[in-house]
Write a sequence for this structure.
C-alpha cells in the first residue's frame, strides 16, 4: 500500500481498489484545480492524485462529490496550505520556564 504520509485518519475502505480509480476515471485523469487562465477554467495537467475538496476534519463528507483529481503539484500545494492553517489554529505549546543559565 502506498504511503499515507501524515494522515490524521485512515483511508476509507476500498480507497485504493475502488474509490481512487473511480474518481480518476470520472475526471479523465485531468487536474480539476480551478484556474482562470487554464483551459476550461481548470489546471488540465495530468492528474495522479485524488483529494477531498473539503477536508474531513472540516466536515467534508466521504462522498464522490467531495473528491477531485489533482496533479501532484496542486495536491502538494493544497495539503501544505491546509497543514499550515491547522498549525496556526493550535495554541502554542506550553513549555516550562527555564531559569537563565546565569542565574543557576
Amino acid at each position: 500500500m502506498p504511503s499515507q504520509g501524515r494522515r490524521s485518519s485512515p483511508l476509507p475502505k476500498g480507497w485504493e481498489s475502488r474509490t481512487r480509480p473511480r474518481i480518476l476515471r470520472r475526471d479523465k485523469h485531468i487536474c480539476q484545480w480551478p484556474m482562470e487562465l487554464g483551459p476550461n477554467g481548470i489546471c488540465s495537467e495530468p492528474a495522479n492524485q485524488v483529494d477531498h475538496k473539503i477536508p474531513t476534519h472540516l466536515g467534508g463528507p466521504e462522498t464522490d462529490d467531495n473528491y477531485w483529481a489533482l496533479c501532484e503539484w496542486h495536491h502538494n500545494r493544497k495539503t501544505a496550505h491546509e497543514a499550515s492553517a491547522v498549525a496556526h489554529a493550535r495554541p502554542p505549546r506550553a513549555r516550562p520556564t527555564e531559569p537563565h543559565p546565569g542565574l543557576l
About this structure: The first strand starts at residue 49 and ends at 52.
